Sequence to fold (354 residues):
Amino acid sequence: VFEFEQLSRILQQKAHETVLEINLNAIINNLNKFRSKLQPGTLVMAMVKAFSYGGGSFEIANVLQYHQVDYLAVAYADEGVELRKAGIDLPIMVMSPEEHALDTMIRHQLEPEIFNLRTLKLLEKAIKRNVIPQNKPIKIHLKVDTGMHRLGFGMEEISEIIFTIKKNPHLYLQSVFSHLAASDKPAFDEFTREQIKQLTQVKELTIGQFDHKILFHLANSGGISRFPEAHFDMVRIGIGMYGIGDMEMQLDNAVRLKSVLVQIREVKKGDSVGYNRSWIAEKNTPVGVVSIGYADGLLRALGNQRANLFINGYPVPIIGDVCMDMCMVDLTGINAMENDDVIVFDEEHTVSQL
Fold:
């Protein structure tokens, strides 16, 4: 329902009565639950992305560093730079290494994900523009497509890309990884096993080509508990760290999104609410206006009684179309006042219950 990275970014960009709260204790509890599934020596990469900077500063990244995760991953270089400036010294992988940010990544010791030859060539050009000590090559992470068909090198390209990396002394292949497409869906377990098999084949092709240990990683939050054979050298914990997904692990919900009830009015029978007159009152109805809309990440598809928000513990259906920065709710039978908190999701009302 929500893209949390986008939601976090949006709420950081403006003063707003809608607040995303993060429970750090719940995050660590979830981290430890995932760790309990791992063999000794298996490394952990935490996918922090937009959560660890800006409005929330570096608190999440800092607490993960304190609890000794091995790697962080961010979406863009500017996120990694903010973490570095805040004192985070863990290795950081950048998943979307934009061309204009490659020099910045080199200066701040951020490690790019390489998913095509073009990005690698651009990185090599950036290396030539910077002074790179012989004993400090640029660490890179090679992404392989094993079935997601999103980003990554195909199996037929592996030999060529390994050759290209080997001949450049300023490049250091730190890891080779892929992404599971449906690890939490039992109906696609055979597909997941095929992905595991393919990365194993890539590992066999790569081992022995370099004189240092290369990390291999595949398992995401959904795959950690269900596919121990997918753990390889490192696992990546993303949305599961925030308590979303994998009900079998009884994860703690770590995120709370709340807004505020900004106005209450009585809508008379036959009157409409919102754009397109998509909701018509069948009786005189108390209607509340809530300060959250699709610009904040609340999908427009949730309007017209397809989802509930919560006021004083009671569900209130969203009525009418979701607006850009507001939505309306039916307050029938609810004792509510203007300026009351409105819960979108929290520990008791999860995203899946929307």
